[in-house]
Hints:
mainly alpha
Amino acid sequence: MADNRSNIMEVALRLFAAHGYDAVGVQQIVDEAGVTKPTLYHYFQSKRGLFETLLEEKSAPLLADLEKATRYERNILQSLTQVTQLYFDFMKHQPVFYRLMLASWYMPPSSEIYQPVSDIHRRQFAMIEQMFLDAVPDHGNMRGRHKQYAVSLRGMIDTYAGLALQGYIELDDSQTVYRIVHQFMHGIFS
């Protein structure tokens, strides 16, 4: 049998992504995972603890790779391509988690999970903003726009990823990334 901790996390991920955090109860998670409530509480202390652990562990590879992808090496086209491709690859390998992140991002601030989700997104935005700040010496027209560019780039990436998750489009080749990056760059340099 699978490790109880991993099993609980996979079941919770599937349920949270399908129904939303608030609609899923601890009883439903333990029933589908085939464990008891004390087992869940042993590993995670609470439903929120489970969600936060899931969020941290599933987003860690993305954050580590994003730190590398956002290192500006005096080629903005390369940087934008690396970041865009990274998100699309992550979405393809972790579609259920990506769907959960997209849905959770729009939770109201009063939600129990708003803060941990916001923290993960803020960390991503900070890295992308820094990439644009680092590009200012090479592209002076970016000065003072780093936050707008980071929001626009993530918005564009997440829109395409969301449409792909819904089966509306496919993100299956490098030409798609090329077109998206050039569409974004047209806005920067115009």
